Amino acid sequence: MIAPKQITVTIDGQKCVGDEGQTVLQIATANHIYIPTLCYLKHLSSWGGCRMCIVEIAGSPKVVPSCATPAVDGTNYSANNDRLRQLRRLTLELLFSERNHICPFCPTNHGDCELQQQGYRHGMDSVRYPYLYPALPVDTSGEYFALDHNRCILCTRCVRVCDEIEGVHTLDVAFRGEKNRVVVDLNGTFGASDTCTNCGACVAACPTGALFDKAAAFRGKLNTCQVVRTTCTECPVGCGLLVFTKENRIVEVFGDHDSKVSLGHLCARGRYETWAVPRERIVQPMIRTIHALKPVSWQQALREIARIRGKLDATQTALLVSPRITNEAAKAVARVAARFGKVGMFVARDESALCEAGTGALEGTNSLSNADAIIVLGAQPSRTHGVLAAKIRNAVRRRRAKLLVFHAHKSDLDQHADICANIVSLEHVFWDRVAEALKNVKRPALVYGAAAMTPIGVTVMARLIQILESNPSRHAPVLIPLPTSTNSQAVAAAGVEPVEDVAPWLDAQPLQYLHIIASDEPDGGARLFEEKPVRVLLERIDCVVVQASYQSELTEAARIVLPAAMWSEKSGTVTNIEGRELPLQSVLTPRGEAREDARILGELVS
Ligand code: SF4
Ligand code: SF4
Ligand code: SF4
Ligand code: FES
Predict the structure, then answer these.
(1) pLDDT per position as a tens digit, 238-251
(2) pLDDT attached to residue 425
(3) Rounded to whole angstroms, how far apart are CA atoms 275 and 254?
(4) Taking the domains of the chain in order of start, what are their residue ranges?
(5) Positions of E strands within 419-496
(6) For ligand 1, atom 2, which residue shows the shortest CA distance?
(7) CATH of domain 286-347+487-570+584-605
């Protein structure tokens, strides 16, 4: 790649070096010169609409928006002087007078409203224009966030992030003059939108209180919160989180822009589901009496387990774990494995081969942005791996990558696909059409899920690889396996056998004792209980111990229940689909008497 030509400009008397093509704002920022902005957001295209970032060019009477003006070699710019400050204050006064910015009643009046900050910065102690006091609608129909048009400054950051990062273009701007408004789809609502993925990127991008998270509203001021950097464990993409907490509860969650995996983006599961959706926690150990589960101390629970296990031979016992456990807990499982007749990890149908095949290439997910063809085989990333789906949509929509989707189920990716075929009827697919579509491809990526491990999926994968290999000028395809559970590949690598069919696994040898580590499975491990044969077999086992964060039908059926720490209470590491070992930082102290999985296991066998 040819390095861009360097240019030198002067900003506020300071010589600044930058690259040809960079804007005045980019060069000023890189050289530590502050220029106020409102509609500009790094990682998004420039819009140049708010006029807060105006600068003067020596010799010209005009001011120009620095975020949208490419710097010219040898030019002298003024970014901060009295005239510019007056003009910026005037812009702010107009913005404040246009809509209803009544800060004390705004959920974003907690230290991160950029409009308010600019008001203070520019000494805006009064507004010299008449307030319009519009009575605009407030859309509270969305599941996690709301849009109050009365606080919107029409900066279009939400519109651009929805289009350029999430890649769905749910939002746009409609109407003219003072009726100008952000609209959802064709002037609908968030609640009725079938394009909005609830990723919350628009909320994170909004510089005012127009878009706000419902669960976070009035929970606490962000500028008085502790901020902890950790990893989302809802799926194996492993996005970076910035978790804001106060008094041992989560106030709000944002994407971590320093994350090499997600670059600040999140999906609805990572941003909201883990904390904004109430779940019934298990807060202390419990032992079943004749009538119900009765709270006991840890000592009593561990003593009871030791008493029961003491009467049994190891072959009559088994340990079944969730793939969501940390790498450290997986090692603890491997250490205690000899004390059990058998040890397994429950995984989704057709996923064991995916777990055992190991992780994909490092930088695999980021390489999607350079891919010129993406094949999605037997996976539904829009449903299961939201941020990866956003990367695929962007590669297709913005960089014109080809998309080929082979799956039995419909997904939103279908509408972007050059070829879309049902995996079960692939025998009838016109393979020459596929070959034609992949003919001149140089940097292909193959994203494959559990259905690619079925006999038909394996046949299709082999055919696709054969077609790709027949093109001599292409690079080897980047392979991105997509198991649905967070850490299944690392737990399998620690030596824990993946188990798809739990019923035959349980039935293979008569068990008297089964310890299930459901960990922080969102359903408390209930998915095990859903299958009737498993339910029947569990009922036959004398003692079922369930270690879980949340109550479920499974815990209701257990003889002993142990409270496990949830994602925000754990420390350690998890390994993502690219093989990156990502840190998990404990954000909150565990609720009640909950303990981390590895610690509980250690205490069980000590
Ligand atoms: S939540 Fe995501 S998809 Fe929905 S409007 Fe906002 S940015 Fe777009
Ligand atoms: S809702 Fe927020 S981000 Fe969107 S245009 Fe209005 S102020 Fe800007
Ligand atoms: S894509 Fe996966 S890791 Fe990323 S935020 Fe969504 S659930 Fe979490
Ligand atoms: S930040 Fe440059 S015009 Fe808005």
Answers:
(1) 999 999 999 999 99
(2) 66
(3) 12
(4) 6-80, 129-273, 286-347+487-570+584-605, 359-481
(5) 419-421, 444-448, 478-481
(6) 199
(7) 3.40.50.740
Amino acid occupying residue 283: V
* Ligand 2 centroid, distance to 67 Cα (angstroms): 18
- Alpha-carbon distance 578 to 361, whole Å? 5
Choose one of 197, 199, 234, 263 to mutate for the ligand 3 pocket test, by most ligand atoms within 8 angstroms of C-beta.
234
Ligand nearest to the CA of 24: 4
Task: Indicate whether residue 37 lines ligand 4 (CB < 6 A).
Answer: yes
Please identify, by atom number, the ligand 3 atom nearest to the C-alpha of residue 385.
1
Residue nearest to atom 3 of ligand 2 (CA): 206
509, exposed or middle or buried, with CB in 10 Å at 0-12, 13-18, 19+?
A: exposed
CATH architecture classification, 6-80: Roll (3.10)
Ligand 3 center from residue 233 Cα (angstroms) = 7
Strand-pairing partners, residue 544, are 514
* 559's tokens: 């003889």
So what's the pLDDT on residue 219?
A: 86
Q: What are the phi and psi torsion angles at 218 (to 5°)?
A: 65, 20
Atom of ligand 4 lying closest to residue 67 CA: 2
CATH number of 359-481: 3.40.228.10
Q: Please tell me the CATH code under which domain 129-273 is placed.
A: 3.30.70.20
Identify whether the C-beta of residue 499 lies closer than 8 Å to the C-beta of residue 347: yes
Rounded to whole angstroms, the Cα distance separating 379 from 356 reads 17
Cα–Cα dist 561/295, whole Å:
9
Give me the chain's average pLDDT, please: 94
Whether residue 115 contacts residue 95, with contact meaning beta carbons closer than 8 Å, is answered with yes
What's at 122, amino acid-wise? H
The ligand 4 atom nearest the CA atom of 49:
3
Q: Could you tell me if 369 and 399 are in contact, meaning their C-beta atoms sit under 8 angstroms apart? A: yes
| C-alpha count within 13 angstroms, C-beta hemisphere, residue 521 | 29
From the CA of 158, which ligand is nearest? 2
Task: Please classify residue 86 by burial: count the beta carbons closer than 10 Å to its beta carbon, then call 0-12 exposed, 13-18 middle and 19+ buried.
Answer: exposed
CA atoms within 13 A on the CB side of 290: 0
Domain pair 6-80 / 359-481, same fold: no
Binding site membership of 157 for ligand 2 (Cβ less than 6 Å) = yes
pLDDT tens digits along 365-401: 889 999 999 999 999 999 999 999 999 999 999 999 9
Q: What is the largest distance, in Å, between two alpha-carbon atoms of the chain?
A: 92
**How far apart are the CA of 184 and the centre of ligand 2, in A?**
12
Residue 51 Cβ < 6 Å to ligand 4? yes
Rounded Cα distance, 520 and 298, in Å: 19
Which residue owns the Cα nearest ligand 3 atom 8?
A: 270
Give the global pTM. Answer: 0.94
| Higher pLDDT among residues 317 and 111, named by residue | 317
Half-sphere exposure of 516 (CA within 13 A, CB side): 30
Ligand 3 pocket, Cβ-based, cut-off 6 angstroms: 232, 234-235, 237-239, 262, 266-267, 269-270, 385-387
Residue 337: partners with Cβ closer than 8 Å, 6 or more residues away: 319, 343, 495, 496
Q: What is the mean pLDDT of residues 8-25?
A: 97
Instruction: Tell me if 48 CB under 6 Å of ligand 4.
Output: yes
